[in-house]
């Protein structure tokens, strides 16, 4: 049944959101295999990740003043030739699912990446995860392949499916990616963009 919830506010995330992001992420670390981390990072660790170079976009979904979801990009691989490729992730509070918030977060994340110079986005999904596969497919990601028995968590081995999304035409002579900066609060922190 379609959701009747009002759209969450979608905006740039900054280190002030780290505690809220850590709280959203924690249950997916401790109670699921959606994340392959086994120890939930605290707010300080999330803030460190947000600021680690190269700085990449973190987007928050806010409802009633609280962070209820987030999406971010991270370097796909530390080796130099990969530096125009990112890996994307998205997590919502459990009761925020199914209201279009994941789609809105990813649409905003996707829009932030090409102007910075990034060329390709990847996403790894521990299988099965119908909602995440559905979201990535809805956003235009296409399947690349499956890493078999790629991780062991919660007493068993898990396959990871990889998806990818072209962000822009690969340039013949790419310039170095630029660092992301959150939009000033006056531009989007106060008003943000309604999801949808
Ligand atoms: C995956 C997740 C981010 C999806 O976010 P969401 O806000 O619930 O998804 P949306 O409501 O924006 O749905 C967008 C599209 O995704 C797909 N989708 C969402 N939930 C789905 C489900 N349960 N089954 C199949 N497809 C689904 C649909 O195509 C949907 O489009 P539609 O509403 O027009 O049919 C959310 O379920 C979540 O946080 N899950 C737990 C954490 C997780 O697995 N993160 C991904 C790690 S790889």
- Cross-sheet strand order for the largest sheet: 6-7-5-4-3-2-1-8
Radius of gyration: 16 Å
Summing up helix and strand content along with how strands pair, one would put the structural category as alpha+beta
How many DSSP helices? 5
Q: Which of globular, elongated, flat, extended, rod-shaped describes the shape?
A: globular
* Number of strand segments: 8
CATH class: Alpha Beta
* Named CATH architecture: 3-Layer(aba) Sandwich
Biggest sheet character = 8 strands, mixed
Q: Can you tell me the number of structural domains?
A: 1
| Bound compounds | coenzyme A
Fourth CATH level, the homologous superfamily: Gcn5-related N-acetyltransferase (GNAT)
CATH topology: Aminopeptidase
In round numbers, the mean pLDDT is: 94
Q: How much of the polypeptide forms β-strand, as a percent range?
A: 25-35%
Give unreliable regions as ranges: none
GO molecular function: acyltransferase activity, transferring groups other than amino-acyl groups
Keywords: Acyltransferase, Transferase
Organism: Modestobacter muralis
InterPro entries: Acyl_CoA_acyltransferase, GNAT_dom
């Amino acid at each position: 049944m379609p959701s009747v919830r009002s759209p969450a506010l979608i905006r740039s995330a900054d280190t002030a959101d780290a505690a809220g992001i850590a709280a959203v992420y924690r249950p997916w670390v401790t109670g699921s295999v959606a994340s392959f981390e086994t120890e939930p990072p605290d707010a300080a660790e999330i803030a460190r990740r947000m600021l680690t170079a190269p700085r990449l976009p973190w987007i928050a979904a806010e409802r009633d003043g609280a962070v209820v979801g987030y999406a971010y990009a991270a370097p796909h691989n530390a080796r130099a030739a990969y530096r125009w490729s990112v890996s994307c992730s998205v997590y919502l509070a459990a009761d925020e699912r199914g209201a279009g918030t994941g789609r809105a977060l990813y649409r905003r994340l996707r829009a932030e990446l090409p102007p910075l110079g990034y060329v390709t986005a990847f996403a790894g999904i521990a299988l099965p995860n119908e909602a995440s596969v559905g979201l990535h497919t809805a956003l235009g990601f296409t399947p690349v392949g499956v890493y078999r028995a790629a991780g062991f968590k919660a007493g068993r081995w898990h396959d990871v499916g990889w998806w990818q999304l072209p962000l822009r035409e690969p340039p013949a002579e790419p310039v170095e990616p630029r660092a992301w900066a959150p939009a000033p609060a006056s531009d989007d922190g106060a008003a943000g963009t309604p999801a949808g």
